Inverse folding.
């Protein structure tokens, strides 16, 4: 040790973080959280914009599928409905046609003048998903029957077919 060097002093007490360090850390984490949330929201909006950019046909078909998937499976005895208010069970969609189109909540889709949705429901055996059976979908299916429904939604614009979409629905 040199004669003029001052020895280092060490403050006593427990080691830890200062209040300023904790506040800066909270600010950084909070900013990252806000940025991540904003990014997820922007991604969801971009996806919705791309979905609409493909045209209204996929949107209108998806609305029927969402409606159908939430309907009771017990037959109502009402088929080939033409208004959302008449849709009360899955069999209501057998031969259904909506113009103006309807949304998943069975209300009329605003702003879709000239558009329409035609719905077909058929029954397929789980071990043969290529050929429909002769079973009438209006009669209903037991949940453990080995059969599934196929929902076909044809979307039209000004009476001309645009595209047809299909989904499998569990009884």
């Amino acid at each position: 040790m040199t004669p003029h060097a001052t020895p280092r002093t060490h403050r006593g007490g427990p080691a830890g973080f200062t209040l300023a360090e904790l506040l800066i850390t909270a600010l950084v984490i909070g900013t990252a959280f806000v940025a991540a949330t904003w990014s997820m929201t922007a991604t969801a909006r971009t996806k919705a914009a791309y979905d609409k950019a493909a045209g209204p046909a996929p949107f209108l078909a998806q609305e029927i599928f969402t409606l159908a998937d939430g309907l009771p499976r017990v037959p109502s005895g009402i088929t080939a409905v033409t208004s959302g208010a008449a849709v009360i069970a899955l069999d209501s969609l057998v031969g259904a046609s909506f113009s103006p189109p309807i949304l998943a909540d069975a209300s009329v889709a605003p702003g879709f003048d000239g558009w329409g949705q035609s719905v077909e429901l058929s029954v397929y055996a789980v071990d043969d998903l290529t050929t429909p059976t002769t079973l009438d979908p209006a009669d209903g299916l037991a949940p453990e029957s080995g059969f599934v429904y196929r929902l076909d939604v044809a979307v039209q614009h000004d009476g001309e077919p645009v595209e047809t979409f299909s989904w499998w629905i569990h009884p």
The first helix runs from residue 19 to 53. The longest strand covers residues 115-125. Strands lie at 97-98, 115-125, 128-132, 147-157, 160-169. Residues 17-53 form one domain.
